[in-house]
From TrEMBL:
Keywords of this entry: Signal
Keyword Signal carried by entry: yes
Source superkingdom: Bacteria
Residues making up the signal peptide according to the UniProt record: 1-21
Record-given protein name: Lipoprotein
Length: 225
């Protein structure tokens, strides 16, 4: 009996040690995954940081413009990270690259930045992101809306030129006015490509959860400009 007891005691000690080792080994990957997956843990090159109250709750929020292109490539940044009080951190990525605000877009900016335009209207803040303007046009122009407990991209189009962001119509709804990518007129060829660019009409978009063209306001705006 005594010899049997001596045999069992070492076996019991070894078994306990193995169980402890297994518990530590299982916990470590879980902790590592949590750290690696935590927002903001990965290294990002930040081009510009803006700190202000974006959702009008009296608490400072932060916005970071990140992921600049490699040296020699066009544009300024391709990612925007938003940390708004009371909301989960959220990021948006450009399919191509965002650039400086167009020099022709001269509306007063709610933030001191040359790369992103902010406009406050009622309980919302609207952020305008200007894609790089190539010779053939701009592939990306985006509008993000902050407010009412939400951060949402409500507009993403290929826009040649941003004209204005302003309340319009009898109800004062906020609209974005832009000029689409120029079309070509095959009846009047130029000396190089056999086609000539024609100036595109203005388009008025009503900004909402499902931003869409407002036909009546578009017609009225084109008649007066």
């Amino acid at each position: 009996m005594k010899s049997t007891l001596f045999i069992l005691i070492p076996f019991f000690i070894i078994s306990c040690n193995n169980s402890s080792a297994d518990a530590v080994h299982q916990k470590t990957p879980d902790s590592a995954t949590a750290i690696a997956g935590k927002p903001g843990s990965s290294a990002e090159t930040t081009v510009e940081t803006i700190i202000t109250d974006f959702n009008n709750d009296g608490v400072k929020d932060s916005l970071a413009l990140q992921s600049p292109p490699v040296a020699g490539d066009p544009g300024q940044f391709s990612r925007i990270r938003l940390r708004i009080s009371g909301l989960p951190e959220q990021s948006f990525t450009c399919a191509d690259v965002w650039d400086y605000i167009d020099s022709s877009f001269t509306q007063p900016n709610a933030v001191a930045s040359k790369r992103i335009y902010a406009y406050k209207h009622h309980q919302y803040t609207y952020l305008l992101l200007f894609g790089f303007l190539y010779g053939s046009g701009r592939d990306n122009f985006d509008i993000i809306r902050i407010g009412n407990g939400q951060i949402k991209k409500i507009f993403s189009q290929a826009i040649q030129e941003a004209i204005a962001l302003q309340p319009m119509g009898s109800d004062g709804k906020l609209c974005f006015i832009g000029r689409p990518i120029a079309e070509t007129d095959q009846d009047t060829p130029d000396s190089t490509s056999g086609a000539t660019s024609t100036q595109s009409s203005y388009i008025v978009y009503e900004l909402s959860d499902t931003s869409k063209i407002d036909i009546l306001l578009t017609t009225a705006y084109n008649l007066s400009h």
